[in-house]
Every structure is written in C-alpha cells, then in structure tokens.
Fold these 2 entries.
Entry 1:
Amino acid sequence: MKILVTGGLGFIGSHTVVELQNEGFEVVIIDDCSNADEKVLDGIGAITGKTPIFEKIDLKEKNDVADFFQRHHDIEGVIHFAASKAVGESVENPLLYYENNIGTLVYILKALSKKERSNFIFSSSCTVYGQADEMPITENAPVKVAESPYGNTKQMGEEIIADTCKVTEGLNAIALRYFNPMGAHPSAEIGELPIGVPQNLVPFITQTGVGIREELSVFGDDYPTADGTCVRDYIYVVDLARAHVVALKRLIDKKNRANYEIFNVGTGTGSSVLQVIESFERVSGKKLNYKVVDRRPGDVISAYADTTKANNELGWKSEYTLDQAMKSAWDWEQKIRNKS
Ligand code: WQD
C-alpha cells in the first residue's frame, strides 16, 4: 500500500517514514529540501533496509502537485508534514507562512478530492489552544486567537480540512495536535537537525551539553508553576511517529467515526523546564550550564495533553519516558558532533 509523506525528510516526517516502512507500507516522500537534507534518506534506509521513493517537489507549484497525483494514482493515504514551523520567523514573514502552509494544503486537498476515497493525516499542533484555561487540555478546549501566524496556519488548516470534508464524501481526515516533540531514533541514524541557533528547548540543551552553546537561557522562573518555569508535554518523536501510523490505519480500515476527527498526541504528563534540565543531567551525567533570564514573549505558562481520546478511541498511548527520550536526544547530538 503506497503512502505519500510530504515533508518526509524533516524531523517528525522521517521518523514517521521509518514506522510506516516497519509496518510494510511503501512510502513516497515529497520534500522541497528547504529545511531538510536529502541525506536523511540514507538514515531511513540504514534503519529499515529500504530507501523510500523521493521526489523533490515544491508543493506551492499547483501543477506539479496535480501531476504528482496523476503519476501516483495508487496513493492510498497522505500524511502531510510539509510546512514552515518557526514561530518567530512567522511573525516577521507572515505571507511566507500563509503561502507555504495554506497554499500547499489547498493543492493537496484539491488533488485528493478527485479520488473516490482518500485518507489524510494532518500535522497540527497544541499551539491552537494558546493558553488553555484548564489542564490537562482536551480536544474540546476552545481554539484561541493564534499567538503567531504559524499557529494561525494550523488553526486555518484544520478549518479548511473540516470544511472540505463536509462537502467531500470520499475525503477522510484526522488532525493530530502534537504537544512538544523531542528526541531521536534509538539507532541515532536520524534525529532533529535544527538549522542555526535552536529555538526549541531540547536541542538547545543538548547543544549546550556537547559544547556548541555556552549556556542555556531559561526564559523565566517566575511563572505560577511548581518551580516557576513553564510546563510542557514533551513527547518522544518515535511515540509521535507511531501515532501517525495508528491514525492512518484507522482511516484505511474505515474505523473512523466521522470523516474528520481530531486527536491530541502527547504523554499526558507536564514537565517544567527545570525538570527537563534535570532529565538531561541524569541521562548524560553532566551538569548543564544555564542561567535564568527574562520571560520569552508569547510563551504559555502550561500546556499538557488529556490523552483519553487518543488512548481509548484511537487506541494509541505513548510508551517512552522523558529520560528515555532525552537519552536518545543526547546520543544523537553526540553522534552528529562525532563525540560519541
Ligand atoms: C519549551 C519551553 C520555553 C528554549 C514550540 C512551538 C510550538 C510547537 C512546539 C510546532 C518554553 C523554554 C525554550 C530556550 C527556554 N512547534 N525554553 N530556553 O514554545 O512550547 O512550542 O515547539 O508545532 O508551535 O511554539 O517549545 O521548545 O520553544 O519551549 O527556557 O532556549 O522551554 O520558554 O517554556 P514551545 P520550546
């Protein structure tokens, strides 16, 4: 069964391709390589023994998208990761985000709408909740006014899919709202490859641990949380990847209850910034060099998932601990810096 993975050379995409191939799916990757390296194909091949088909296509070229689906009419499902995802960059360059994240989604949905039946998994984000009023966050929590154009493209993406599913009987879609993905494949053949100074906490920690960064800045310790630092739901990227395979199978096996469904994908446990630092120190045996600085504008105080729906309805549950995920991130960092 052939599955298209857009953005399949990226961090979450590549880990999902591995899990799909492990389950026997044939995978075709589309990626424009704007934020990922073609060498990731070798890592995937090293893990699964099979290198996926790869086509370098700019999904903003609608004729190229239509042509792709003409040539691959036997695509049984699409997992759509391809998008720009840097919150700060989206504030500076909103049109880049609306064109890349919305335009491409529209072209893919137009192609899928022509098929008798299509199965579509959308990469969404807990960012749609903003600062939710209650913890843990359920899928019924209100979607709040987006804090950034990036977050807005996820909200708009969900609405575009919902509206399209309402009038396109053959289209079956699931939006997965990720919490905070982290870590790397246990083989250390693939992992997160942030370009430039990492925005996210975990790669900044491991780069500090390996000596690329002088010290970690902790953005505020005066929040109304147990230790004053922000709380997030850090989910191991392999757990997250497996959630995509489970969701895809739900649609292929026609087990979905509606032709558009939404699931939170997290561990259900909140961890503070200081707890994540302690996890790094436990798994690496190193003291992390950090200092507390001012809060980062736009940060929510706390966000962690209520995973009841994913556990009971989707039939997926995260299996790895924070320390296991952190160990994989640390092993990966040392390997790519040739320090292991
Ligand atoms: C986590 C915590 C920071 C860096 C982002 C996107 C979100 C989603 C997941 C795509 C916060 C603190 C961070 C640092 C720090 N991405 N921190 N020092 O902001 O929760 O979510 O990634 O969907 O859309 O916004 O993740 O890793 O940036 O921050 O203290 O150098 O770590 O303040 O409390 P975030 P993050």
Note: Residues 2-182+236-265 form a domain with the Rossmann fold fold (CATH 3.40.50.720).
Entry 2:
Amino acid sequence: MPRRIGVMGGTFDPIHLGHLRTAEEAAECLGLESLYFIPSAFPPHKPDKKILAFEHRWRMLELAVQDHPKFRLSDIELRLPGKSYTVLTLQRLLDESRNEVEFYFLVGLDAFLELNTWWHYHELFELAHMCVLRRPEYRQEGLDEFLKTNISPDYRWNEDEGFYEHPRLFPVHPLRNTHLGISSTRIRRLVSEGRSVRYLVLPEVMRYIAEKRLYTLEESRPDVKRGKCSL
Ligand code: ATP
Ligand code: MG
C-alpha cells in the first residue's frame, strides 16, 4: 500500500476553521498519513486582488497547524519559479517523494467547478486523487456534470468505493464533510468592519490578525488617523 499524503492548496488569506475542520475530516476518512497545507505564493487566479504578504499567511498557518500531529506546511510554491500552478507543484512533490506515495489533493467544490480555468488542468487527474470538499453555497450535483463534461466521460461512480473511478486517471472522491459556510473573504470583510471573527478562526490566528492589524482599512485605524502607526 503506498503512503497516502494529503495536499491542500489555497491562498489561506487567512486560514480559518472551514479549512481546518474539513481537512481534519478528510484526513480521517481517507486515512491520510499527513496533510500538507501549501499556500500559494504567486496565485495565477487572484493577480488583481490584493493578497496579504506570504509571510503573514505563512505565520498564521504555522500557528494553526503547530499542535496537530498530521498537519504540515510546505513552502514549495515559494521555492518554485514563476506563478503557482498546482500541476507543477504536484509534479515536484511526486519527484521529491520518488513515487513512493499517493497524493490526495483536497479542493473545495467552488474551486473544483472552476478547474477548467487552471493551467494544464487535465494533468491534475494523472497526478493525484482529487478529493472534493463540499461548500454550502454549491450544488453537489454540479460535480458529476462537470467531471464528465470537462474532464472525461469515462469517469464512473463506484457505489462500493464511494468515488468516481476511471480506467486511466486517478479517482475523484466527493467528501461528505461538515457544511461550514466560512470563507476568508468574509473574515477579511468582518475584520475590516471592526467586527468579531471569534469562532471562525483559531484564537491564535485571531490574536495575530489583531496584533498585526491585518485586513484593517487604513482609514478605520485610529492610530493611522493620528499618524502614529508604524506598519
Ligand atoms: P477566499 O474567500 O479568499 O477565496 P477561501 O475561504 O475560499 O478564501 P481559499 O484559500 O481560497 O479559502 O481556499 C483553499 C481551499 O479550501 C479551496 O479549495 C477552497 O475551496 C477550500 N475551502 C475554503 N473554505 C472552505 C470551507 N468552508 N469548506 C470547504 N472547503 C473550503
Ligand atoms: Mg477561495
């Protein structure tokens, strides 16, 4: 049996309990030996949006995974040249592991349904098991349709295994994770409005956000208004 390693990519701007709880459930039900959170260093999909500096996102991830026996971080996308393309990341991970492992790529249904906009997206299915996390606002039926239309009509649902199988490509696992309507977008908005994010992120992450004054609009920072804040 090859070792099963999970990989969850994202901007993690910031990491929240939606990421952590669904990763926990996926690790448990897929029998993962460990799970790597891989923050995107140069996200191709969010070039115009202002993303927090990698260092802050990384530090919050460190705080979030520090006590977990299976959760790890990888800065591979910072080390790889150019934009952060998942296909290249998975290829590199496979090279580094000398093919002794099988990778399980965790992706939310929202991102999965946009996979056809990712660079060389077909190859993802040659590199890793695709594990799709459900998100409350997205229809689960969309997965079946998307898979057969955009990836391959040869994917077939296997009731016994509980995944879609394919004669040549890796299986696709729709996960029955807890529905958690938490997103980083909402957290950034709440913080910028001076509202609480308690119970949406870990206490350590909440403290870090407050301490570094992240996601706070300049004009709403009292110290900045008074010209006292050093950034
Ligand atoms: P943003 O709102 O900035 O896009 P996000 O909450 O979607 O942030 P990302 O860093 O974009 O977080 O997500 C990383 C991965 O985790 C994606 O595959 C995404 O679909 C998934 N994900 C994020 N939040 C949840 C959630 N609450 N439940 C299940 N999957 C999630
Ligand atoms: Mg997202």
Note: Confidence is low (pLDDT under 50) at residues 219-231.
